[in-house]
Amino acid sequence: MQTSSPVIRLRGVGKSYPAAGGDFHSLSDLDLDIDPGEFVAVIGPSGSGKSTLLNLLAGIDRAGSGELSVAGQDLRVLPERALSRWRGRAVGVVFQFFQLLPTLTALENVMLPMDFCDQWPAAERAARALALLERLGVADQADKFPSALSGGQQQRVALARALANAPSLLLADEPTGNLDSANAEAMLTLLAGLAREQGVTVVMVTHEAAALSQVQRSLRLRDGRLVEDRRHG
Amino acid sequence: MADRRALKSWRDLWQHRTRSLLVVLAVALGLTAAGTILNAWALVERATDQGFRASQPVSATLVLDRADAQALALARTQPDIASARLRRSLGASVLANGRARNAVVVALDDFARDDIARLQAESPAWPPGDAGLWMERSSLDFSGASVGEPVSLRLAGASESQTVDIAGLVRDVGLAPGWMENLVYLYGSEAALARLGAPAGFNELQLRVRNGGATRAEVRHSATALQARLEAAGFTVKSIDVPEPGQHIHAAQMDSLLMTQGAFGVMALVACGFLVINLVSAMLAGQVREIAVMKVLGGSPRQIGAMALTQAGALGLLACAIALPAALWLGRTYGGLKAELLNFTLDGIATPAWSILLQLAVGLALPVAAAALPVRAALRRPVGEALRDIGITREGEALNLRRGALAARLVPLLGGWARPLLLSVGNAMRRRQRMVLTVLALASGGAVFLGAANLRSAVRGSVDELFGAQRYQLQLRLAMPAPAARLEGLAVEVPGIAQAQAWRNLRTTLAGEPLTLLGVPADGLLAPRLIEGRWLDGGTGAQLVVTRLLQKHLPALVVGSTHRFADRDWTVIGLVDGGPQALAYAPRAALDAVAGNDLASSLVLRLERPESTMALLDAVRQLREAFTEAGHPVAGSQSQAENRRVVEDHLLMVVDFLGGMGVVMIAVGAMGLASTMGLAVLERRREIGVLRAIGAGDGAILAMVQAEGLTLVVLSWVVSLPLSLPLSALLEVAFGRIMFSVPWRLVPGPGVVLGWLGLMTVISLLACTLPARRALRVPVSRALAYA
Question: Does any domain span residue A102?
Fold first, then answer.
């Protein structure tokens, strides 16, 4: 899917971290455009800069250099408070270890982003959260706390939570890394469906070679540089 | 359904209920301590307003040769005088239920007046009739008497005791309590006193000035004007007494006492604040990643901060629910005690609403304010950094490197324990801010504890000094003055009396202030500690040795100075430590010369068997018999042991309260230590997992946690020692202002210092038990997981 206005636009982006032996360059001089509705996998060995890229796109980390525009927003100029609000409305994030809040039920976890961003009327939030859980096949687990859910169920709840505010961009950090193969496959299918049927742009960091069969495009990073940008059938 | 943020806040509190409970207890404890003082102060203030000031206290008392209707009319016609009354007071002794007490019997021209020093009847049949006496209520328990029952009373100067009924109880809020002054106050009509053998008529004129805001100088001016008019009319004015207007006799001491204790209440609150900072930090440390996740989900720092501060406020509200009723009850109990010291009652007086509201506001604000800093720090932490937090920090890295080098040197000397021990010591120092707060909270509790111990020792030392200077065991007060040599001769003939000395006294005024001179033989049974100058030399010269408390009241009485009173020039030759006594000693011969006779009014006696109570009682009985037989009836007797007990009880009550404050602060400190250690274990879950994975057994982990706690305790102990020095000085200065100067005891005794260390060690072992057990419960696999 091609449009004139990319949802993600990076120009000369770099990021380094202080380390004992001097600065460690996690990303160097990265140029990248991702269009709306694309399902993109970011692959590469450990330490290649995959998670760093995802964190920059989510506004979790700040780029050290270059230009970075995500979902129409120049992230360099956004203060922390506005960044949180922007992230809550424009971006959904799925973590490898789910990161569900342990003292909230599945349903409440999904409703929390709506409470933060206030995009949906308070009276509609429960129904919307339930509908999301329903779509992801875990509505029957709505009243359970995360500790009572399996890994696959937790990841589905986490995905529902990421979609709570109907973001245009979904970022997933190793979403299948902690799942068995059946659940991993199901998760990839869900992500692909989101991109294909609802036009959500999905950027996923993964180690799984099997994931490449579901994505439209893969970006290979090595030592902080983009070494391959490949489109799949 | 409630907002998820509120739900999460509540469930987080419940999930960390031990820590939440600690915060609640910490705030409740500090708030109870401070609230008790505040409530007590507010109640005593109200009681003072509604009791003392509303009683229309006397502005001045003039002692005349006679006080009659003419004198009263002169007073009442003076424009600046609002009201006046006639009074007579007489010394006496009372015997009731086997207790002999000194007494003051008061007659008034009109007991029903309510425009000057109003008396409050606490029994029916007021005012007193011509039969029976009324007793001031604060004297009742102390006297051993009961209402409606007779007592044996002998007026000073009377040869025989008489039986008189106690007709009722009256409250005179202008007096210090009888039990405190060691006096029984009795009231009766002029006729009732005449029946007991008192001289007819009155000899005092009491007045109240019209200007309620008059200063002491203005009152004295009015009294002096009246004196001139009285003298012009043929009266002789012997003395004028002007108390501090509007102030109860003990009000200044009470204010100082409550202020000092209030300062400790605030200190306890501050220590609680340290603890709450640590506890909130602990809660937030466990939620670093959750906060980051909430930020990722769109939560703004303000929203997440509001959640954390709401949690703190909720804990404050819970603490208020515990502390406010407790402080209300304790404040009333403590305030009642204070009111009793002022001879007031709190009956019908409610704790003011502002005091309760202030406590509520502090209770809510304290945890919120204490939480604000750690919450701010947690919210400012970058999301990425928080998400990457794996529980192993770089903090204390430099120290750890130094520790590593030290361990390399110590291991050959101390064996295998050196490295884990040094690891614990290093761990205790890793979070500097938290370590400082924990150490400060514990050390300040310890400093108050040590300060209170020093003050107790100083007060005991002062009392020892005071009574050590009195080398006699018994004092007799005679109904009528008699020749000194005769009294001494009679006393030493009584079996069991080793030595007897007759004393006399002279009451006069200096610069308008009352001054009591005690005439004693130079080589006598009295040897107070000399601070400056010298003791009496046995001559007959007009020499004075003043006590430190008298010098405080009359600063002009410095050694070497000369003052004219009683028609002579008196030179101050020495300054002694007289504890709570404000008087001057002079050679008895000098007072004899002033009076023109050698009459004495009291005797001090050294017993052959000073340690025997039976010998003392026997001596009192035989002395009374011998003196009565010789025509010198005894008006009262007092043993020094009893005197000492009364003095000590009142002084140590104040000290014990300070000790109580120290205990509160130590409890707060102990909770701080427990929370700090809990937090340390929580934060180093992964490290502990690693240690266990490489072979550390349960015993080693337990020992390391306990050693870390002990490191903090030893640090607190070390800090508390120098901290107790200025605090002891402060306490002793404050005590000196409130009561009387005590000898400085700034350095606690080795027993106290080691006892404090022992107590701290026990506290540490207890405080670390739960965190240590928690450390053991961490499964290695879970501790090492990066989820």
Answer: yes
pLDDT of residue B678: 78
Which residues contact residue B575 at a Cβ distance below 8 angstroms, ignoring those fewer than 6 apart? Answer: B530, B531, B532, B533, B545, B546, B547, B548, B551, B558, B559
DSSP B413-456: HHGGGHHHHHHHHHHHTTSHHHHHHHHHHHHHHHHHHHHHHHHH
* CATH code assigned at A98: 3.40.50.300
Q: What is the ipTM score, two decimals?
A: 0.78
Q: Are B339 and B47 within 8 A, CB to CB?
A: yes
- Is A124 within the bounds of a domain? yes
Strand partners, A33: A9
B410: part of which helix (H) or strand (E)? Answer: helix B397-414
pLDDT tens track for B28-44: 888 888 898 889 888 98
Examine residue A19 and state whether it is found in any structural domain, yes or no: no
Whole-Å CA distances, B13 to A99, B19, B313, B601 = 19, 8, 12, 73
In which domain, by residue range, is A124 found? Answer: 36-63+72-231
Residue B519 tokens, joined: 């005439």
Determine the pLDDT at residue B706: 84
Strand stretches in A71-224, DSSP E = 73-74, 91-94, 169-173, 201-205, 217-222
Q: Evaluate whether B384 touches B345 at the Cβ level (below 8 Å).
A: no
Contact list in A for residue B292 (CB cut-off 8 A) is 60
Angstroms from A176 CA to nearest CA on chain B: 14
Q: Give the CA dihedral B26, B30, B32, B35, nearest 10 degrees.
A: -150
User: Can you tell me the distance from the alpha carbon of B718 to that of B456, in angstroms, rounded to the nearest whole number?
Assistant: 22
Q: Is residue A18 part of a domain?
A: no
- Name the one residue in this structure whose structure tokens are 């009584």: B494
Which tens digits make up the pLDDT trace of A46-82? 888 888 898 899 888 888 889 999 988 888 888 877 8
Q: Where are the domains of chain B?
A: 1-53+249-388, 58-241, 431-470+640-787, 474-609
Determine the Cα angle at B254 with ends B552 and B460, to 5°. Answer: 65
Contact between B296 and A85 using a beta-carbon 8 Å cutoff: no
> Other CB atoms closer than 10 Å to residue B584's CB: what's the count?
26
CB atoms within 10 A of CB B523: 12
B180-198: pLDDT as tens digits: 667 889 998 888 888 888 8
Mean pLDDT of B270-278: 78
Peptide bond connecting A102 to the previous residue in cis, omega within 30 degrees of 0: no
- At residue B572, the 3 state secondary structure works out as strand
| Count of structural domains within chain A | 1
Q: Identify which of A96-110, B68-82, B676-690 has the greatest average pLDDT.
A: B68-82
Please write the tens of the pLDDT for every residue from A106-122. 999 998 888 888 888 98
Question: Given an 8 Å threshold on Cβ–Cβ distance, is A97 in contact with B786?
Answer: yes
From chain B, the residues in CB contact with A122 under 8 A are 3
Count CA within 13 A, CB hemisphere, residue A129.
Answer: 26
Query: Residue B509: what are its φ and ψ, rounded to 5°?
Result: -130, 150
> pLDDT confidence of B56, banded at 50, 70, 90?
confident
Q: By the CB < 8 Å criterion, does B299 face chain A?
A: yes
Which residues of chain B does A58 touch, with a Cβ-Cβ cutoff of 8 Å? Answer: 296
User: Taking CA atoms, what residue in B is nearest to A159?
Assistant: B297
Q: How far apart are CA B366 and CA B316, in angstroms?
A: 7
Taking only the tens place, the pLDDT of each residue in B479-490 is 778 899 999 999
CB A51 within 8 A of CB A73: no
pTM of the entire predicted model: 0.67
| Spatial distance between the Cα atoms of B366 and B254, rounded to a whole number of angstroms | 28
Q: What are phi and psi of A115, to 5 degrees?
A: -65, -40
Which of B1, B4, B15 should we substitute to test contact with A (largest number of A Cβ atoms within 10 Å)?
B4
